[in-house]
Amino acid sequence: MDNNKILKGIAAGIVGGIAATAVKTWWESKHPVRSESTETPPVLLASKIKASLVDVPLKEENKPMVGDTIHWAFGTSTGAIYAALAANSPVIASGLGLPFSLGFYALTHGSTIPMMGLEPYPVNVRMDYAWNEFAGHLLYGVTLDMVRRATLVVIE
Length: 156
Prior knowledge:
single chain, 74% helix
């Protein structure tokens, strides 16, 4: 295992994760994944954590910042993990990130997030919301992989 290769992969993944999160955020601004009155999974998660720690609800005015922070941190760190794995095992990055994005969707909005009670399962929401979420993950994965690859060319 080449540590330098993995560190470069992580750096490229951070750049890719930021770009991919930006694309997914833009996509969701044009193609909603839930009604505007529905709390996002990051906000619901932060609210649950805060309530369990200090038994005080998350302030309404802090919800957008908290939600965005978690959303961007998760998207960026996922990019770093993906790129670190791809640096060590190139098969991870096959298919321009599409196989990864399918797995990422299945492990998040397709299972874990609904199991945590942070949103309904995709079969229990409006079909356009479910498809928009799914398509956003495909865009995330392709953007992540393309930007990761381009960044590696620049830094190597």
